[in-house]
Write a structure and sequence with these properties.
47% helix; two-stranded antiparallel sheet; seven-stranded parallel β-sheet; TIM Barrel; globular
Length: 372
């Protein structure tokens, strides 16, 4: 169901009425805060949906995220999207960050499923180029029950193939939370893939704050934040950073759970987002919110305004400290629930590991006695 603000804007466009937007957009801000917006009713609607929440960048799906195959984007709709971006001052090459369909897995060891994923992947890249979009973000996939080194090679192979089938769109690899056999939960995974990409001008990285935290990279204060970027620069390289996904985390540090939360409600807390709002190296990159909004897109508008409010706010500002405490309290119930689940999982894993060690010790003793 489309959010209320989106439906209102869509009706106005259909009637030919002038649009009024719910949240005023602050143009000229070097930090391009935005969000993932809907494109129901036509992909050009994504532009007005972004304007409605005061976004300076935006993400979208370039086809239905629920289908492997979707109808082509009509020429007139593509032109409308490009014209609206120009009208409202969105640079389609740098300010728009489409998200790849979630079920694409270029590392799938099953050949038929790999081919299905690759065809969908290239189709989405070509849709981006039809819309003059310069960036395309996707999840790097999973090795499933296959070999991890082989999965990394297969992923890089498919990226190389896709680059040769397209002209300019840059393929952006998103870091992951690390559950299961997912690729990209370590910075080294991403570096290994980049090393195997032939045209490195056509590949980049999107850092998701929730995924990073869930994978064990703590960003929650200035020292930890700086340490993370020091690791990023050493392992991957600053030249590959192309985008940020901005999410708090419902799950604790290192929980390996991809659970996005509203800013300030989660285990990361508001401080990291104040730091981000004042970090020069993130200027002119699309900084995309993917926090939970339900059917009310105004949440994104509120969070963009919160991020803009955090700019130039010192850590000891009284109003800031009040807001930090207020948001942290609002998320207390969900944090407690997730902490309980995490602690239960850790205890279960430790028990299983202890049992395994005990069994191994007994087996070793029996072997020694037999030999004796």
């Amino acid at each position: 169901m489309p959010p209320k603000g989106i439906k209102k804007a869509a009706k106005a466009v259909k009637k030919g009425e002038p649009l009024s937007f719910q949240y005023p957009r602050v143009t000229g801000n070097p930090l391009k805060f935005g969000a993932h917006v809907g494109m129901a009713g036509g992909i050009s609607n994504a532009v007005t949906n972004a304007m409605n929440i005061g976004a300076n960048s935006f993400a979208l799906f370039v086809k239905s995220p629920r289908k492997w195959v979707s109808p082509d984007i009509k020429d007139e709709e593509a032109k409308k999207f490009i014209d609206l971006c120009e009208k409202y001052g969105y640079n389609t090459r740098t300010d728009v960050l489409p998200h790849g369909t979630y079920f694409i897995n270029l590392a799938n060891p099953d050949e038929a499923k790999e081919a299905q994923s690759y065809n969908a992947f290239v189709d989405e890249l070509k849709r981006c180029e039809k819309l003059n979009i310069g960036l395309y973000n996707f999840h790097p996939g999973s090795a499933l029950n296959g070999s991890r080194p082989d999965a990394l090679k297969q992923l890089a192979k498919n990226i190389n193939r896709a680059i040769k089938e397209t002209s300019f769109v840059k393929i952006i690899i998103e870091n992951m939370a690390g559950h299961g056999n997912l690729i990209g939960s370590t910075l080294q995974d991403i570096r290994d893939v980049i090393d195997m990409v032939e045209d490195k001008s056509r590949v980049g990285v999107c850092v998701d704050t929730c995924h990073s935290f869930a994978a064990g990279y703590d960003l929650s204060d200035q020292d930890k934040f700086d340490e993370f970027w020091k690791q990023f620069d050493t392992v991957i390289g600053p030249e590959y950073l192309c985008a940020i996904h901005l999410n708090d985390s419902k799950a604790p540090l290192g929980a390996n759970r991809d659970l996005h939360q509203k800013l300030g409600y989660g285990f990361l807390g508001l401080e990291v987002f104040r730091i981000i709002a004042n970090t020069e190296r993130l200027q002119n990159l699309p900084i995309i919110l993917e926090t939970p909004v339900g059917d009310d897109d105004s949440v994104y508008g509120e969070e963009i305004k919160l991020l803009e409010w955090l700019q130039n706010k010192p850590k000891d500002d009284t109003e800031y400290l009040t807001k930090l405490e207020e948001l942290y309290k609002l998320g207390s119930k969900e944090r407690a629930e997730q902490l309980k689940k995490f602690e239960s999982k850790v205890a279960k894993n430790e028990k299983a590991a202890s049992k395994k060690r005990s069994g191994s010790d007994i087996s070793s003793m029996l072997t020694k006695k037999t030999k004796a």
